[in-house]
Amino acid sequence: xxxxxxxxxxxxxxxxxxxxxxxxxxxxxxxxxxxxxxxxxxxxxxxxxxxxxxxxxxxxxxxxxxxxxxxxxxxxxxxxxxxxxxxxxxxxxxxxxxxxxxxxxxxxxxxxxxxxxxxxxxxxxxxxxxxxxxxxxxxxxxxxxxxxxxxxxxxxxxxxxxxxxxxxxxxxxxxxxxxxxxxxxxxxxxxxxxxxxxxxxxxxxxxxxxxxxxxxxxxxxxxxxxxxxxxxxxxxxxxxxxxxxxxxxxxxxxxxxxxxxxxxxxxxxxxxxxxxxxxxxxxxxxxxxxxxxxxxxxxxxxxxxxxxxxxxxxxxxxxxxxxxxxxxxxxxxxxxxxxxxxxxxxxxxxxxxxxxxxxxxxxxxxxxxxxxxxxxxxxxxxxxxxxxxxxxxxxxxxxxxxxxxxxxxxxxxxxxxxxxxxxxxxxxxxxxxxxxxxxxxxxxxxxxxxxxxxxxxxxxxxxxxxxxxxxxxxxxxxxxxxxxxxxxxxxxxxxxxxxxxxxxxxxxxxxxxxxxxxxxxxxxxxxxxxxxxxxxxxxxxxxxxxxxxxxxxxxxxxxxxxxxxxxxxxxxxxxxxxxxxxxxxxxxxxxxxxxxxxxxxxxxxxxxxxxxxxxxxxxxxxxxxxxxxxxxxxxxxxxxxxxxxxxxxxxxxxxxxxxxxxxxxxxxxxxxxxxxxxxxxxxxxxxxxxxxxxxxxxxxxxxxxxxxxxxxxxxxxxxxxxxxxxxxxxxxxxxxxxxxxxxxxxxxxxxxxxxxxxxx
Length: 760
Prior knowledge:
Layout: H1 5-25, H2 27-43, H3 47-60, H4 65-77, H5 81-94, H6 99-111, H7 115-128, H8 133-145, H9 149-162, H10 167-179, H11 183-196, H12 201-213, H13 217-230, H14 235-247, H15 251-264, H16 269-272, H17 274-281, H18 285-298, H19 303-315, H20 319-332, H21 337-349, H22 353-366, H23 371-383, H24 387-400, H25 405-418, H26 421-434, H27 440-451, H28 455-468, H29 473-485, H30 489-502, H31 507-519, H32 523-536, H33 541-553, H34 557-570, H35 575-587, H36 591-604, H37 609-621, H38 625-638, H39 643-655, H40 660-673, H41 678-691, H42 694-707, H43 712-724, H44 728-741, H45 748-759
Helix pairs in contact: 2-3, 3-4, 4-5, 5-6, 6-7, 6-8, 7-8, 8-9, 8-10, 9-10, 10-11, 11-12, 12-13, 12-14, 13-14, 14-15, 17-18, 18-19, 19-20, 19-21, 20-21, 21-22, 21-23, 22-23, 23-24, 24-25, 25-26, 26-27, 27-28, 28-29, 29-30, 29-31, 30-31, 31-32, 31-33, 32-33, 33-34, 33-35, 34-35, 35-36, ...
């Protein structure tokens, strides 16, 4: 019996289907397909998508070395250091003889400051391959990081002896020598590296940075220009030139060179973003926003541009626009973690802190190695008052991205709040390591050293800030503060004026000079100096705020009120100006107006405890003690150590029959926060009086009376303490002195009653 042609075709077709199905089930085919797909995404710069494909490949075959290797590279491109480390560790576990990957893993450990582990990794390779140049280089860098300069230099000499004609080895040697302050030797080796490879833009840029850090700016510019001659399409060369021009106070040239980069490389993202990033780094948010708005139109597929644009909108408080663009980003890329982090930042800016925490917690659950998510969550938690976990999240961000200066700066802010100057110094050193050519780290380092009593170290840090950024006014202002603290007022004034020459809007310079005049008991000169700067810069809200604060200090309440209003006309969202206005209105007795201003401050910044504390004082002055207590409690919820709120809460509890133990806790909190205040001494003493601890009360009240000898209440309370201690002559003397101060006061009858009790 013969089969029909149709039947044979069916059999062949079925066999083909089976073969195709077999291929689709073959794990080797599937893993290779995932790897190839990942490579296509990687080559296109789509690293999140590439990571997903590589992860699919290693799920199919956990021992697929090529996929682990590419996944590590992908994580490195995304600055996900911990994940990259895990993948590289897996590669060397699978291929123990893969020495290049051991070295790569060691370098990653070094970046993460795991120096001993990096040394161990280099030693492992050298034990099997004593002539491995890369291992000697890694060991040298690890030794240098440990401060073992001599050992580091020996290792580099061995590496150079093994391969004496390799430019990068001389570069590394020069870098170590520069860090060890062996500047002539470093300069010679930079020159040797460039001699060996004259077309190495990396070597030219490193040499330029070496000169820039020495303050040899003309020579630095020559090297950066040489890099551009070698390769005109080198974005890093344009960037370094712009930094050099900025630090030389040649901002127009900096802007021009970045415009040139954009024109030369219109399709290179690293180049066309430079100008917008420059505006942002310079603090010119308006120009940065305009530039990124243009980039977003010209490069709609560049998600980095969109993210930066949204970030700028957040900073400019254009939250509705930011939310709209972020929504669009997340529609295009629903799993985009950066978009979710931006969502958390928008919610934080809207003071929706609980929602922000939820969004960021979810983002971290999806991407635990995302440093930006940990950083954003750290800020939210700190603002919620959970500073412990907030600091932990910020440190986790730094662990994942050791060079993340924003996290270091946030940690420095927390350290300043706590007065933890060891942690401040640690944060400052991290910033310096990441940004050695910027002033920020050196300025924070100076603050830490000054508060640790190291005046010489603080002075050196300030000089370094000026050296690396001579166009940055803050270095000169910091030096002015340094001289002012030493009462070297002519030197201080000179540097404050230099700060204002560098930047006429330097609040640090103007405020520092005003404080210097106040320290010399010259308030009129302080006010006149601020007014003269306002004449030069009439549209700076911070200058009017400073003027108002000075006027308030001199009891010129009308002038202070006008200055606060002027500051708010320029910047309606300035919480400090609203606060000043409310305080002035309160001092003038315009309690209803002050109350309205504090309520406005609460609306603008509902997490500012000052507004609640001072609104409570107004409520208390208006004899509405229940509402006053509510306001104080809100202030304490936001800031448990708010001394004003704690002091007044304790007082209200004493006056209205509250729990004495709770009142004692509040009074002790207030005393810790304001240890020199006679008011907090009196409040704490009053609690002790109620509890019968007369000796403790007597010590505090004597201190209060010494500081405010004309205060009737303090002297009366001291009399009560002596009465409780059975020292009746002293008690009678205090009561009589208190009564003589103001026989018609609200408490005069109580004092007379106490005197009568002593006479009976």
